[in-house]
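re: that complex we talked abt at group meeting.

here r the seqs, copy pasted straight from the sheet so there may be weird spacing, ignore it
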Amino acid sequence: MLAFELLLQGLVQGSIYALIAVGLTLVYGLLRILHVAHAGLFTLGGYIGVLVTNATGSLALALLIAMPAMGLFGIAIYRTCYQPLLGRPPYVALIASIGLFIMMEELFRLIFGPYGLSYVAPPLQDPVGILGVNLKQAELAAMVGAVVLIGGLAFLAGRTRIGTASRATVTDPKMAEAFGVNIARIRDINFFVGSALAASAGVIVALLNNLVEPTMGSVPSYKALAIIVLGGLGDLRGTLIAALALGVIESFGTIYLGSFLDRDAIAFAFLIAVLMIRPQGLFGKA
Amino acid sequence: MAYEITLLTAMGISVIFALSLNLITGFCGQISLGHAAFYGIGAYCAAMITKSGLPFPLALAAGTLLAGVIGTVVGIASLRVRHDFLAITTMGVGFLFLGIVRQQDFLGGEMGLSGIPGSGLSKAGFMLLVLVIAAAAAAFSLYLKRSWMGYVFDSIADDEDTARMLGIDVSRYKLSAFAMGTALAGLAGGLYAHNIRFIDPDSFGFVESITVLAMVVVGGIGSVWGVVLAAAVLSVLPLWLQFISDYKLLLYGALLFCVMRFSSNGLAGMVTALAKRAGGRP
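got the structure back, here u go
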């Protein structure tokens, strides 16, 4: 019974990791940039979610506002921050991104205050029984939301013209361009979709903890990096599996290894162990 | 005078720490996002030794050695991964170090170690020791840069595959860079522990790793003078900026971002560009 409960908790956590990491993978696949500031959009998405829900009482409206807003913000970040750095060595964009992330966290603290915000009347808090284990509706929503959003994304990537163009650009940008793919637009779309997903994760995490705070993006940010590396960098399916696996491993690990390692260290111990055996990640091609 | 001594000591330790990362990231081109772990290993090791009553020089040496040994082990592990994978692996090493230290009661856990004995030197004496070591580290870096090993490091940083094709034992040189860099970080950590005389896991976290990377990058990857200057300025900047303490980190983030965005070769790159402009077209 405990095992089943831990498994469910792990899957809930893993779903959230997946929503954040998918955006990072999209960006990495296209531009080979480790986009740390992605987690800043996750945090801002959470803030917008709480503020809109508190103002209007509608969580759906909050999601409808937060996701496209963060999507546009993502495009703005790409255009102003990353586009000029594309020809530089990879560490340049990485460090610029870290600088940007620190700035964003500080701005959140200065604007929204250091103690964070909560929902006045947090929605979706009733328990739901699944095979004898009680989950909050919000936790169930996190899992369902992740499945729907990422499933939809996989469908778009696999079955539509724009998805095909995007995959072609990932494989070989120059060749794709020669075949008439508008690369600039593909990059915009990827940033939009990835950032919107991060915003949805922010709203959901705010719901689970009933709290948004300036630093809530830090840990997910670094873990999402670990996840996309585990997933083989730029591989959507691998990222999803790695995110869920990491969620489950953490939830079991905290119980059985908690006296020796803390939660974050378990994730990275797993990461290092995997990389030593498969340096290209779990699902990466050598 | 006491204020200046404190300032110079902190500056000197930062310079040593930044130079240690410069050996790995600057000279050999291996990016590390977890360098603070080795600073921490040196600090914890040295602190445990002086706390058990053994002399300060022994503690410094042991901290250096332990950090270097663990650094070599991490180096062996990271030979398997490159580029972005290496960056994330080293970040993982940093978090692993924190995670382990936090759960160990004999290392003070979350609370850290307090009451670390002093070095036995006066404040000015300790400052002199730090500055002498910092100068020695800078001199060693300059010497290394001009040596055969420095040229090999350069070639590995530039193009690892070509270096390997030319018959260079890339793994061995990468390991040397890791061993030297992490040992020097351990030395800096030992000095830090006996300067502040209190250490906790948060002093060696991800922010610290990024801060030292920022010093190397802002100074100009691989440039000894640039890194020394950047480390000196960036380490005291937060103290000078006390009056805007609320915006301190904001400014720091903006600085990192702007240097990368507008002059990715750092201070050294800026100076070179200015000198070129002043001297007419080459």
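couple things i noticed - Chain A has one domain: 7-277. The beta strands of chain A are 127-130, 133-136.
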